[in-house]
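Ticket opened by: R.M.
Priority: normal
Category: complex prediction / small molecule

The reporter submitted a protein together with D-glutamic acid and asked that the result be attached to this ticket for the collaborator who will pick it up next week. Submitted input follows.
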Amino acid sequence: MNRPIGFLDSGVGGLTVVKEAMRQLPNESIIYIGDNARCPYGPRSVEEIVTFTNQMVDFLLTKDIKLLVIACNTATAVALDEIKQRVSIPVIGVIQPGARAGNKYTKNGKIGVLGTEGTIKSGVYLDNLLQKNKDLDIISLACPAFVPLVESQQYDTPLAKKIVAETLAPIKNKGLDTVILGCTHYPLLRETVQKILGQSVKLIDSGQETISDVSILLDYNDIAKMSDDPSPKVRQFYTTGSPELFKNIADDWLAEPIEVSRVTIDTLEKIQRQMEEG
Ligand code: DGL
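Result attached by the on-call engineer:
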């Protein structure tokens, strides 16, 4: 089935999930929206995150998506359940797959969770991990300085190395064998995080894990696009912020160049009102 898969994030972070989708599911059409103008979501109130996320969901629904990926841990933490109830297509967030992978890879039961303030405050990773294995020893750490570094394309700079080292100091040498990158922006800082924590620590990319689940969901619902389907695939990227900055980061991160269009917050609000009015 050649209807697209929809992805949303507060900004460019969801591209780390899309990158994995392009690798594992190259036949699939993709529509992405990043709310860069209102990023970061991490420090925002639950009400704001829920409202903004729902606006992006409505936008993606106008594009006739067949499956929705909430490619943002912060939005998943506070809005996934509500969105699942509201829409009629399959919806998947990034937290359950990330937590499942953490539980799978740890050998000594000591897991670190890195995330935004919103994600860590929600306790959703902790709940997911402990529901599967109540004996896990978990340290959660909010890393509020990471997303602004990524959004301003400074992930590969001496400043990034300094900030990552300072932020992760409290969890270094605590015997963690597995650390979950519980924010889809963080894989862009992965090399630096790995250097600081040491090569023996297994880093889990929650987005990467999510695409394995998306693949299962597509098969389960019999909606995957097969290699012998001749219809052309679509790749559309939208941002509420600067298309140029978005494209610079996307070109740096993804294997193929993409087209980026701007969608205004006014447009998102208008679509939301139209959807509410039915
Ligand atoms: N990419 C995001 C996440 O996975 C959001 C970060 C933010 O906007 O603070 O949580």
